[in-house]
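TL;DR need structure tokens for one chain.
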Amino acid sequence: MDLTRDSASPLRVRVVSDGRAGIQNQALGLAEAVQRLRPADIEICRIGWRPLFDKWPSALKQPWMRDPAGDPVLPSDGVPWPDIWIATGRASLPLSVRAATAGEGRPFVVQTQDPRWRTDRFDLVVAPEHDGLSGSNVVSILGSPHRITPVRIADSVAAFAERLDPLPRPRVAVLIGGRSASHDLPPDHAAGLADRIAGAVGAVGGSVMVTLSRRTPPAAETILRSRLADLPGEVWDGLGDNPFFAFLGAADHVLVTEDSANMAAEAASTGRPVHLLPMVARKTGSKFDRLREALVTRGLARPFDGTLDFPATPRVPLAETDRAARLLLARYDAFRG
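>> reply
TL;DR here they are.
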């Protein structure tokens, strides 16, 4: 513990990940939720490992094996640690353990996701419920931490108002993922999905706002763009500012593929009706099945049935990131004593 820290100064929070947006945003979203509750300065650090060592077990990695192009996340002599260290992803694990065992003055170390390592190596683990992780220092949340907030949504909607305001209602945000260890989106499935989406939106005279993932297979992307082209709206081309938050904020309904825990949690956080788009399963009994069941059971989502009949009535937005931040600060205060 850092017993000399000025309690009146902002918390120093370090966010550590390999820099990929879907990974970094989990740690950053949790850090921003902490910042909304208590004054804090957030430092974002991107790290990696030299190719020769990248696949090594985390327990064998040493700091000198890191990619020198990464940020200097470990402090040099005489430089204090941050107050709170929030990390996500496999690449961060060896560094998080080093931070947690650094002795006096070390940070309070938080790892998001299931580290698939001994959870007692960290001060706190914030893991999705569907990972089935348990322990005295584990906080389970529905979905994953994210950066969606009402203010960020409203600001983004205002920034894209000229593009989105003319779109006919109901406006339907369509969030498409892609191939992963658990799911796939082959061309024939993408074609069927696109036709069902077009039918549902066309039947109510609505419009679409579509985003695609880096994991979306090129053939599936081509089909989706082609078959949704006749609907009012847009399929984002990846150029310019990302309208993702604006699409969520402007939507009356959100359609999201079932392969992404991040996108499902983000969609549920808006309070809009969420429809889960089926993908081709590559394995059964996956954690995503458990997430889908939890969202449906709590009335936050339903499987897409080819219609938009899911009532667009107000529902309590999912706010698990804020809940995790409150619990984090309580544990941090106890850590500092």
